[in-house]
Structures are given as C-alpha cells and as structure tokens.
Write the structure tokens for this entry.
Amino acid sequence: MELIKININEKMEQVVSARDLHERLEIGTPFKKWIDRMCEYGFVENIDFVTVGQKCPIANGGFQEQAEYILTMEMAKQLCMLARNEKGMEFRKYFIGVETAWNDPSQVMARALDIAHKTIANFKVEVSQLENKIEEDKPKVLFAETIETAKASMLVGELAKLIKQGGYDIGSNRLFSWLRENGYLIRRKGSDYNMPTQKSMELKLFEIKEGTRTSGD
C-alpha cells in the first residue's frame, strides 16, 4: 500500500514532496513555518532537498507561484522522527521499507536494464535521424562530388549530364532554370539572357567562350 507518492529524480534517486509529507503527517503548523523550522536542523539545500517553483490555482481562477521542497529519503525519514507522533513513526518505517526494496539487487538490475533499453532506443532514434539527413543531403553531396572531379570548364548541358549520371535526376533546361532562379545566370530576356551574372564572374564560376557553330539551317 502506497502511503505517499515517491518520485524518481534525474539522478535516479527517490524523493518526496515536503508538502505531501506535511499533509500526511497531519502537522498542525502551517507548511511554510514548519519547513523553515525543519531546515534549521542543519539540512543543506541541493544536498538534502531542492527548492522548485510551481504554479497553484487560486480562488479567482488565476495562479500564484509557490515554493515546493523536494526531499531526499534520508531527510524525509529524519523529519518523520522530528514529528514525534505515531504518524511520524509509521511513515519512517514505510520509507525504510521502500528504500530496502529499492536497493534490492534484483531491483537494481531491473533499473539498469531499463536504462540500457532506453539508451538503445534513443540511439536508434539518433541513427534514424542521421540516416534521414544523409538521404536528404545525397543530392548536394552528388553535386559537390561531380563539381570536384571536373578539372576543366564544361558546358552547362554537360554538367547536367554528369549530375544525372551521379544519381540526381536533372536535365539541361532544369539546371539552366535553377541557375537563373538562384542568381547565377541573367534572367531578363535579351542579348545577355543566360549569361553569367556579375556575382558568378566574381566568384569565377563561369568563363565565356565565343565560337562558331554550324547547324543544318
């Protein structure tokens, strides 16, 4: 039978709410006055207890901030002794029993296995995310590898063929369109249409070669 809720913190330690304990021990003194007096017995914050803020509803429908004290099991047991009543003794025995079960070798092993399973599950998620990222970046990598292996200049149409051979489906017209849309070739219609922009020339991405082409017409 659970007498009081026992939580597990990020350090895998059992902890108890001071407010819950105050209520279960049926302490007549108001909580704030009681916890301040208890802390005077030499308990150290961030070792024996931690203080956290929490929002609590109030009568007008709003919320107010109040301090919550999270106690270690050792501090909780000592507060039970300081209560000097039957409830205090009852809860101290309960905490001792919970601690004994928690430290049982079979329970320690079960927690270790649970942590291992969660670690493996998180690792699988990370691997899956990396694999998805690799798949997303594949076109960029193929493009970069294609450019890296090209030692001399080439026609845009030839570059499109190399990229397609590398596994990314693109044709000459689509590559020309992409270069125009991203500011590498001039977009406006006219004699300089599809010519390199000033930015492209400054980056030395293109060179212009003039020549004569003979066609059937």
